Amino acid sequence: MWTCKNLWKKLAPLARSSSTLCRQNARGVLFNNERRLPLVPQAHMSSGTPGSGGDNNLYYLLVGATCVGGGFYAYRTIKGDKERYQERINEIASRPNKVVPEQPITEAPAAEPATVAPAEVPAPTPVEFPSHAPYLLIGGGTASFAAARSIRARDPGARVLIITDEPDLPYMRPPLSKELWFSDDPSVVDTLRFKQWNGKERSIYFQPPSFYVSPQDLEKVENGGVAVLTGKKVVHMDVRGNKVTLSDDTEISYDKCLIATGGIPRNLQVIERAGEEVTKRTTLFRKVEDFKALDKVSRDTKSITIIGGGFLGSELACALGRRSADSDLEVIQMFPEKGNMGKVLPEYLSNWTTAKVKSGSHCQPRLGVAVITEALVKAVSFKDGKVEIKLKDGRVVKTDHIVAAVGLEPSVELAKSAGLEVDSDFGGFRVNAELQARSNIWVAGDAACFYDIRLGRRRVEHHDHAVVSGRLAGENMTGANKPYWHQSMFWSDLGPDVGYEAIGIVDSSLPTVGVFAKATAKDTPKAATEKSGTGIRSESETEGTANSPVASSTPEPPPVPEQKDNYGKGVIFYLRDKVVVGIILWNVFNRMPVARKIIKDGEEHADLNEVAKLFNIHDD
Question: E-strand spans in 117-156?
């Protein structure tokens, strides 16, 4: 009724004006014809006489049309409002649950709410992670974890978010090619726990899940914490806007950011071009899933060929060689150099190591590994159920599976969107001595090409460097402003009996001086870890002081190794402009502070035999 009354108030003036217009037109006609007819009194127009029927009929027609039109408009308006109201009610009612009753206004029975699980209520707009992180760490490896610990140590209330494209929490990579393969536990692939050379058991994960806070709670926890967002990849970085974009288009802003994206295993182009049958029978070893996949392959196939003679290739050759005794697995290792670790070790020591790998005395006591040196791969194909590897000298190797261990490519995909510089010589993000790429962006680990204040610009791909650079980046993100002066070490073990630790620039193309002594039973990685009580040697590294070496006053020619058949233990010095820039400790352990001191001093030494005595290699 209220709507109709308002409508009549609006239409009444229109009707009156129409009536007035009709009367004026009638008068105009009469005046033009100079005739005067009696006018119908205005008070009786609604019931005029038969003589005035034309005027009244026109009046009725106009008023009637106006009423009909107004009524139709009112009907359509009311009906449309009702429909929009119903649609709005239905939309509101559908928010908690997509399946809603037909009459959303009707009260639901008392038991109805119990049928909707609480977890389903936020389903349409799930909150999986915070939209802002004061400290954002891209990458879930060793460098990120070291940085997170360092940040929390200096800023106990810090909120740290780690984003990793892997499904796992931060873990250490060295056991994937070392200790895990020497475990006798058949469930090691599932537990990822292993016994160190000292006999103690531990997990590859740095911390259990209980150590971390959930990403949903990171902004709410009172004292901050470290959260890990797994299975998410950062695909774009807005440096000016201080935010990153994930692969699902989600954006997260930050105050300070660390890039620790690590690297991607390289592959041979001949393998990439060989087709699907070859590529699906090729492993690029880097992650936990690669270890699990290769473990399965080693149990299901008859032969595996490892291409690469570096750290990873040699370690995997020894690891798989040990397993071959129980499964009749044929293990082949091929590389373009003349011997194992040919790019790192002096030729005489590389050849000695290769002979040990072949004989199996250190890798596997009964079977050993078939080593093919100076092998340049020309083509790879799949024929008659086998992968066929053709070498440039005409040799052909047939195998069931290939492991390509030919190096690492630093992951720098974010450089383009972020506008960060990539070093043209070494690869990786180019940073300064404080590991800064921008005022609030740092880079650590394999992806960092940093300036070493002692040895110049470098990029290092080792576990201890990830620990040291990640820790330093975390300190600098909290205001420390420290330069990278610490010389990180790296190590490799060819089984429990042969191992070495290295520091600085170790390149076989540099002049070297080696000083060796007879090894004893305690000069093995196993004995060293039993003595120290630790398994990951970089974790036992200390900043211990070491006395400066005293050089002899009488120059002597570089010593020639006396033991040509057995290099049990010793020290190899790498020289550049007669200054020691790198040191390898061959089956000599817990002497790294001394080596670090020698490189830091950067002095020229007349007699390296005297310097070698600082490592106590002649002690029984």
Answer: 132-138
